[in-house]
User: Fold L-arabinose isomerase from Allonocardiopsis opalescens.
Amino acid sequence: MTDRLPRIGVLGIMQALYDHMIPGITERQAGYAQEVADRLGGIAEFVVGPPVKSRADAERVMRGFENDELDGVLVVMLTYGPAMRVARLFNENRLPVCLANIQPEPSVTPAWDMADMTYNQGIHGAQDTANAMVRAGRAFDVVTEDWNTDAFVHRIDRWARAARAITAWRSLRIGVFGYAMNDMGDIRVDENALLRALGPEIGFIAPGDLWRGMAQVPADAVSELMGWEDGRFAVDSALSAEEREDHARMQLAIESILTNRGCLAYSTHFDAIGEDGRFSRLPLAAASSLMAKGYGYGAEGDALAAAMVYAGHQLVGRGHFTEMYAMDFPTDSILMSHMGEGNWEVARSDEPVRLIKRSLGIGKLDDPPTFLFRIQPGPATLASLVSLGGEKFRLVVSEGEVLDSQPLPALEMPYGQFRPATGLRRCMDGWLTAGGTHHMVMNLGHRAEDWRVFCSLAGIEYHPV
Assistant:
């Protein structure tokens, strides 16, 4: 779901005034805008609009970007351009915006004449344009760099991925099978406020739909999935054919329901499945494989966590649902795990992912097939979306590393030990003080800056700990 490159429009702004001063300036600066897009060609697909010099020009180009369903708009000042010509446009614009504060030449030299001054005077147009967006209360990102450098490409790459994630998030539908876990407070959110402020929509799906969906799964699809698992994982010989077939039917039925309802993220709660009375086991392995395919997931009816895992897929890739299980003070780390759901795409590369027969009393059902793996050691980042009431949201983020820690033979679910860069004590003090939730998304790599840009575009308070 995240294989495609972001699709970005380039809005080049200039003044008609300069056409009389410097004949050919429009063609020259249009070429500059195309050169910038070509420089960035490996990170996104760019649609370069013609230089805009009036309100009508700008609104026409922006309408084209929106109609083409692009992920974002990169604004490049080709010369100075008065912001009043784009003020209404940016007030109404729905696409994520990055203001590239760049100029054709990286340095001022004694050889410059008035034409060179004009070609390179975008900085005060950027100030005027940024002021218009600030007055409109619109979220946007800014990148000030020499456009010929790798640093520029890296920063625009980060913004373009964030724009893709935000655009996908705004149309996200989350299916909650059954209901959310009773009395669990930090997963609660005003669904209307979430939809208005950020875009994700929550819908509820009756467990009966899953039961009927399982009955409709073709036998050859079940066999195909089981055969694929045999070739991809170390499958426990203790798992019976009945257990595996039941798991496969649940996974295929869940995905079919999500597809039919336009949902790219979901949640199941063990009580909603167990209390229904028709199911034999919980769909834990299904959650792992669907996350690996790019679906967002949150346990126990947690739609916020499901939305965050989906955002993690779109922003970085390989979003992994997890929670903080216990603190390990000697290693300054936190044991990360959950009941059995975890994205096996983040598993250690030197150990096989196992599909095991596993006893689990939660849900009061039969043994659920479960994926067991340890998380790949190395840099990692945790992110938790906090509902502050109304349309205010906060993202609590912690960078650190997954340790190459000891195996825990009795732990029959995905796990790893995360050591925060700020230390266990400081991180947890900050996490709790900020209201960080107990369900979260983990991504491999140091990704705090990616989440900061995501927040700047979404209008979410960014809170690193």
Remarks:
- The radius of gyration is 25 Å.
- The first strand starts at residue 7 and ends at 13.
- The chain has two domains: 7-170, 173-464.
